[in-house]
Amino acid sequence: MDKLTKQQQRKHLLDRAAFGATPAELAEASRQSLPAVVRRLMGRPDTLTELKVVDPETAVTKRGLRGMVRDGQLDRDALKERIRMNAEKVRDLNLQWLDRMASGENALREKMALFWHGHFACRTMGQNPLFMQLYANTLRQHALGRFSDLLMAVSKEPAMLQFLNNQQNRKNAPNENFAREVMELFTLGRGNYTEQDIKEAARAFTGWQFTLDGQFVFRERVHDEGEKTLFGQTGAFRGEDVIRMLLDKPQTARYITAKIYRFFVNETEDKKRVDELADRFRKSGYDMADLMTHIFTADWFYEPQNVGTHIKSPVELLAGMRHTLSITFDQPQPQLFVQRTLGQVLFYPPNVAGWPGGKNWIDSSSLLFRMQLPNYVLKAADVPVRPKEDGDVNTEALARKGGATFRTTVDWAGFEESFAKTADADLPDALAAVLLPLPLRAEQRSLIGKLSQPGQTRSERIRALTTALMSLPEYQLT
Amino acid sequence: MNRRDFIRQSAFTTAGTMLIPQFLKAYEAQAMGQTMAPSGKILVVVQLSGGNDGLNTVVPFRNDIYYRERPTLAIKPENVLKLNDEIGLHPAMTPLKALYDDGLVTVINNVGYPNPDRSHFRSMDIWQTGSDSDQYLQTGWLGRYLDKTDTARPYNALEVDDTLSLALKGERLNGLAVLDPKKLYNQTRSGLVRNLSQQHDHDHETVGYLYKTLAETVSSAEYVFDKATVRSTTVTYPAHELGNRLKTVSQLIQSGVATSIYYVSISGFDTHINQPGQQERLLKQYAEAVGVFMADLKAAGRQNDVMLMTFSEFGRRVKQNASKGTDHGTASNVFLIGGGLPSQRVLNEAPNLSDLTEGDLKYTVDFRQIYATLLRHYLGTDDVAILGRRFDALKLV
Predict the structure, then answer these.
(1) Which residues of B touch A304 (CB under 8 A)?
(2) Taking CB atoms and an 8 Å cutoff, what residues of chain B touch A366?
(3) ipTM metric
(4) Measured between alpha carbons, how far apart are the two ends of chain A, in Å?
(5) In chain B, how many domains are there?
(6) Which of A80, A127, A460, B341 is the most buried (most CB within 10 A)?
(7) CATH number of the domain where residue B162 is located
């Protein structure tokens, strides 16, 4: 592939830094300077609205509910109903976040937050919508701020402390899970700490707990106040000290930068470049807006070898499709069905290591399903597949509620308007330039060309071409 | 991915995508119709999702602690289908008891792993990848078995389902999910899919990977569909999901499809509330389906070539909860059925209910010892390469 044209560059940027673009957005961005487009992508944190499915004042956790049963405030049937409602609220939170991603508002921030959801992977425990709501909003709020703030904030999230068993990490009875994952997955990566470091860090994190209404608390009486020695330093450290020590290590900047590079630039790491970026990142005080601006305005970001190498995750695929065609789902449930079938359900990462991503998204069945997805979403075609049940009674109840009937509203008029001046013969390439990361190859053009039927209106033709282009394997890539 | 694999894979995709037609032809000539296992043996894995209560599946009917901890859930000694003077099967499992009496069933007690995880998803990942409990692997143990065999094709490992489990995902190659050969074949018949699967001139690595996967999917779907129609079984299977799926497996085996691994799951074992009716229904389905499946294979003269392994991601706590159910536990039992094993019956000691860890059973057999034994001695492959280290084999074979 040759050097990218300006429109290809903008498309690459909006694919990676946002959830794709509408034809109108792409045209507008192509008229603007790169710094101006990137600046606009950075958005403004004050315009971010929080995700909200439960009111922290009235939310009651499963444990709280069990307590109410013991006190006689609730009977068993009411308990079951309340637990079911909590599970539904986690689902609503998922859908609400997906709506935000698809909306295009603060798109880079939402994209980064999705990245951080995979990095600080946390799974809902006991169907607790309040904790997940707090956690998601923390990711979104800090997504483009300082990594140091994000790390501290997310480490103190009740959802995370619960998921990694820090409530059970007490003086004289340490639980190392939290301390281990903070080092192995959140900051340093495997092989950059000793077992002794973990043992000592676990002691420092004793007392980091949460209340049922979603507040972080430091409980001094279970905190181990003794001296700890880790990374060659000795002191009566607390959790905050450990986080600071981790941030002081160049390896943390290296580890985070490499992961950002693999997600936003190329799965294959360019070692020298990542080293330079990591150095810059640490010296800037972990300023993520600075790092991302630097990446997105660098010439190398737009080199052909970095284009079309990222396989969209199921959520990226779904949000991107919705955004590009301004699609709304009349019934939201099919969006969960897609997430389940393709293996990425928000708030249900497979484990604390997050979604493996890349080629792991693709196997025979997931590829066929992805290629059929435009037919389901745009043409309400019958869906012949069904995702597996995952074994958990709580989530099974949700999954059984239909989901495989897609009824959507697509803003075709708005989409078609951008192609009003395009000659009929140029439509396949013009649409491909908006939908695909790479130009059409000759054999694809001829295959797509066969879809034109005599008597088709222009509008029908655009719809048929768009559906076909979105069904190409290349549509899975950015 | 390590460096060697990366180079191998890159070389494979860049050169290989252009060469797919020849590659497939060469393959069709040589490998079609051959199973992967040098032994020619077939392994069928039946996964019980949700954490089956092992103590009410293989019941320690002489154990006072069992009856004390489960005042309303314990199965009465007179109802147990006795295997020996200590343990017996849940009363709903008569067909399994019959297989046991025929010397076809081996029961392995107390199977688990160190530092057990009580989350469904995590524990299932551990079982499917064969990892340690603090290790996150992105490939499954059966996917790595595919990787090991140079001539392997996706359909050498089939999951009878719409989506593919991690267990069958490899680094180099994935297994194939096919619930219904005809349905999958039809999905690959659309003009677009068929045409695209023949396009393979890609100088782009990731694009090449997608098209290679597509080409393999289309050729595998066609192969399985063509083969599957060779012979249909005349045996009547119970009309439920597991029955239907094992029927498909039997049909594919009898049609001579070159598949060494089949994977099937049945869900619903997460019995926190009102366990008895739910578990009875599921175990009955399981035993019925497996009974018919083994009889079908016996009639076809294949019962010694096919081994069925059944596991669940964990067992449940010894003590019942307040909702007439049980909560997530740890070690549980595994069944091995058929496969020409010498009649082992009950391989090891029954669970020791007086020696628990926080109310949970202690494992005495690591599940990877079972995998290692099956890989090395049954399928005849390199278990150490697939599992990453040596696990002591069990004396099964």
Answers:
(1) none
(2) 163-164
(3) 0.93
(4) 14
(5) 1
(6) A127
(7) 3.40.720
